Structures are given as structure tokens and as C-alpha cells.
Amino acid sequence: MDYCILIAKSLTHAQRMVRLLAQCGIRSTAFRAGSSLTQRGCGYAVRIRADRWEQAQQCLARAELHPLDVVWRKGES
Amino acid sequence: MLYFDAAATTLEKPEAVGRAMLQACREMTSPGRGGHSAARLAEETAFTCRTEAGALFGAAPEQVIFTANATHALNIAINTLVHPGSRVVVSGYEHNAVMRPLYAIPGVQITIASAPLFAPQETVAAFEQALTQGADAVIVNHVSNVFGAIQPVDEIAALCRRYGVPLVVDASQSAGFLPIELNGLGAAFVAMPGHKGLYGPQGTGLLLCGIPGKPLLFGGTGSASLERGMPESLPDRLEAGTHNMPGIAGLLEGIRFVRKTGIRRIAEHERAVIRRMVKRLALQERIRLFAADDLRRQGGVLSFTVEGMDSERVASALARHGVAVRAGLHCAPLAHQTAGTLPDGTVRISVSAFSTVPNADRLCGILWQILHENVTD
């Protein structure tokens, strides 16, 4: 299954995104992300199924809660 | 002990506070510092605390910054807004946690918007007069830690919005007693301790940020580690170093207690205890009370002096009888200067949600005994 990784500004930002996405019916997981993902050192990111990205984008945009960046991954578990 | 020193710290806490702290010591590490279950539990707890505090104070979770106490929070706010040569307007009742950071900045011009105690209209007029001269920041003590006087923060906030001046509210004695809405006030910052009206442990505080703050401490945040500067975004920007997770876990339970009990109910309870003491203390000729005619203008703090007896001696005598109050200048010499109670200060009684009218009666009975013994200077 393909995944979409939303790079968060901070742990709190990641946690807010997870809560908000849950309210929109989208399952997501926050996790620690390394430099290869964040480009800025340690950080946090949120993983969702790639096919939920459009809905997630709308959900987050309504709350003006935007990820720093979005990274796509194929078949990552 | 009859504890009436809640304005210093609330000694009586909900049971859940201690339990949460113990659980944190045993099961939590640091948020943002690991991917294991102990770190994740800490992350969830910290986020829940931010969320609950945000719900109580009208702020988003990332606008809620954990600090060591209100003094730490005020220092961040002042460090952000006040620079050498800045003009700052304060009330006549500010604590040293505001005044000392201001005194330490070279060339700061401090205008004291002085007004009598329990006089909101005069206070608003004094602030407006000061603001017409221009200001870079306004800092106001929501409830005086010495006299319990409630300052008209809503009106002062409106003045600040009109004049375009950032506002800092010291909510040390009002958090958990009066409604406070960060975004409703349009305040730049609201600072508060976790260990007074929020019933958390000592070593905790909150800074609500209406604007991004300037870091006071620099260090690890568990994020953006490759960047040399502190992260741009809140809350990480203002939270360097390891969090006090036992404190935050305890504070979360304190906030839950306040939200469940209700601020209005807590305030009504505290006012009832204060009202009782005002009624009884007013009967004693030797006692000079500092109480509002309308107790809706007063928080859970009551000061008095005793004719012929230094405030510290009164407090010592009460302590020998198992009554905890505080005497002297209460780290707020400006308040005493404004009210005319220098140099000896006052005896301060301060209550919490756990104070009771029967205990207030006991305090008064013990005080009568001390006065009857006629211990004079």
C-alpha cells in the first residue's frame, strides 16, 4: 500500500494533525522522522494512506493546519 | 495546619495530581526524545495537558507553552517585547516577577498607571492616560497577590488593541478563579503558575502566546536538530531542554479538576470564605482590612494590618497556632508603595477551592486569642 508522509513542524503539530484527521475519519500515525525525511534533523511526521491524501488535505486546510512538506512512499509499512 | 497561603502555592491538591506525578516518574520519559512507549506516553500526556489548558484559556495547543513557573513565563514575555529604551506601562500592583526583569533592561522607561485599590474606573483612566504618551508594552497583574484587587483586564485589553500596544497579563492569582481567554483578549501573552489556582505541582507554569515569543533558553527541542537556531514554530521555540513530565502530568490533573468543578463555582466558594473573614475581621478595631466594598472586585486574597503589631509577628504568632498565612511585602513592594503599606507590609490570607468557612472561623478565633494576649511591639 502506498503512503503519504506529512512532515510536521513539531511534535505538537503532528499530534494536532493526527487528532484532526481522526475527526475527519482518516486514520493516521505520528512517528519520529529522521533527517532523510525532514531535511532539518530530528522531527515528527504523520503517515496516512496515499489514497486518503486529497481528503486529508481538505481536512487540514479547513483548520489551516498545513504540513511543512508531503513525501510519497510506495508500499512502506 | 489551617492553610491560608494559597496565593503562594496551593498546598491542598486533588488526589489525582499526586497519583499522576507518581505514574509519570515510573512510566514516562521525555516527549520528542524517543520513539518508544515511555516517550509516547509522555507525548500524549503533554499534548493532552496543552489541549485541556487551551480549552480552559481559549488558546490552541501550540499556543500553550510549559514553563517552570509564572516568573519564567513573564521573563519570556518581557524578553520578547521589551528592549533597551522601551516604554512600558504597568499597574501600581505588579509583582517583582514583572518589575525586576524590567529594572534589569537598560534604559526602560516605566510608567505606573497608578490608581486606588478596588477602583476599576480610575484604573482604566490611568492606563488610558499613560497610553496616550505612547508605549511599547503594557503589563498588568490581573489580581493583586497582596490585596486581591481584580484589575479591569478586559477594558485594558481593549485600550491596548485600540492603541496597538501588546499586552502581557500576569494571571498568577486569576488562573482558575476568573475566566481568561487569550484570543478573546487579543493579548500578546498571558502568564500563570501551574501550582496555585490550577492545583498542579510546584515547578510548573504556563505561558499562553498570542504572538511568537523570543527564546529565553536555547537548547535541545527534539526537533529540527540540524538547525543552529531554535525552531521557528511554537511550542518548541520556547521549550528548550527536558520537560518536567511529573509536573506536567500533575498539572493536567489540576486543570481537569478546575474544568470539572467550574471556575464560577470555585470563585463563588472562595468569595464565600473571604466574605466570612471580612465580616468577622471587620469587628476588630485594631485590624485594618483591605477589602472591596463589592467583593466581586476581589479575588481570593485578603490583606490586613494590626495596630501595634508588626505583620511578621502576627504571622509568626499564627504559625505557632498552626495557621499558615504570609506577611511582609509578598515580593510586591510596588503594590505596598501604591497602597501605602510600606515599610511593614501586611498579613495576607489567601484561599483556594479547598478552604472552608469553618476553618476561616477557626483562623479568626486564633487571631482574637493572639490580639487578646496583646502582644505588641
Give structural notes.
- The complex is a heterodimer of chains A (77) and B (377).
- Chain A is of the alpha+beta class and 77 residues long.
- Chain A has one domain: Hypothetical protein rpa1041 (Alpha-Beta Plaits, 2-Layer Sandwich).
- Chain A is 35% helix and 29% strand.
- Chain A has a four-stranded antiparallel sheet.
- The relative contact order of chain A is 0.33.
- Chain B has 377 residues and is α/β, with parallel strands linked by helices.
- Chain B has two domains: 120 residues, Aspartate Aminotransferase, domain 1; 247 residues, Type I PLP-dependent aspartate aminotransferase-like (Major domain) (Aspartate Aminotransferase, domain 2).
- Chain B contains twelve helices and 13 strands.
- In chain B, strands 2-8-7-6-5-3-4 form a seven-stranded mixed sheet, sandwiched between helices. Chain B has a four-stranded antiparallel sheet with strand order 9-10-13-12, covered by helices on one side. In chain B, strands 1-11 form a two-stranded parallel ribbon.
- Chain B is globular, with a radius of gyration of 21 Å.
- The mean pLDDT of chain B is 96.
CATH architecture of chain A: 2-Layer Sandwich
Which CATH architecture of the largest domain in chain B?
3-Layer(aba) Sandwich
Output the CATH topology of chain A.
Alpha-Beta Plaits
Uncertain runs of chain B are none
State the assembly state of the protein chains: heterodimer
Overall domain count of chain B: 2
Which class of the largest domain in chain B in CATH terms?
Answer: Alpha Beta
The H-and-E topology of chain A, N to C, reads as: EHEHEHE
The radius of gyration computed from the alpha-carbon positions of chain A, rounded to a whole number of angstroms, is: 11 Å
Total strands of chain B: 13
CATH superfamily descriptor of the largest domain in chain B:
Type I PLP-dependent aspartate aminotransferase-like (Major domain)
Beta strands of chain A, count: 4
The first-to-last residue Cα distance of chain B is 26 Å
SSE order of chain B, as H and E? EHHEHEHEHEHEHEEHHEEHEEHEH
Helix content of chain A: 25-40%
User: By CATH's scheme, which homologous superfamily of chain A applies?
Assistant: Hypothetical protein rpa1041
